[in-house]
Design a protein that fits this description.
single chain; mainly alpha; 6 helices; about 160 residues; about 70% helix
């Protein structure tokens, strides 16, 4: 049977290795970085002109689309909703609008917020693994116990 991913040392894998990338992504998820980035972006998105512009375009599109529909109580609302959704998607306004939102919300945070946090987390992940390796080697060779610097000298009592 194959070894578990917990037995592979990240430092033994070459940069770009899919297994190493998966381990790093899992570490970032466990630290909650993706959730933090998501909250950070969502807190800003509704204040940006690209979002407000897209919202206005979608509102106008929906109003125009619904104004062309004949209303009667027996109309299939789910079918109408799905037709409207398809029309919005096919119009291409969402794709271009979301691209503009990303440009205004995510791009400015990339180099000043996301990258430094990710680099720190990856560094901690890789150096944490080195610490574990050095602890394993130091445990193999017994060393003298170290006393705290303020410890009184003299005989120890149990």
């Amino acid at each position: 049977m194959a070894e578990g991913s917990g037995s592979v040392s990240p430092n033994s894998l070459p940069p770009g290795d899919p297994q190493l990338i998966a381990m790093i992504v899992e570490h970032l998820k466990n630290r909650g970085l993706f959730d933090e980035f998501r909250r950070d972006c969502l807190a800003d998105v509704d204040t940006k002109p690209a979002f407000q512009n897209l919202r206005q375009k979608v509102d106008n599109f929906v109003t125009t689309h619904l104004s062309t529909q004949d209303w009667n109580p027996s109309i299939n609302k789910n079918q109408m909703r799905n037709g409207l959704r398809q029309s919005v998607v096919q119009s291409g306004m969402l794709e271009s609008g979301v691209d503009r939102i990303i440009t205004q919300v995510v791009d400015p945070k990339m180099n000043h917020t996301f990258r430094p946090n990710i680099e720190t987390a990856v560094h901690d992940f890789l150096s944490g693994d080195k610490k574990e390796e050095s602890n394993a080697t130091s445990n193999a060779a017994p060393s003298e116990p170290t006393e705290p610097p303020d410890a009184p000298s003299g005989p120890r009592t149990p």
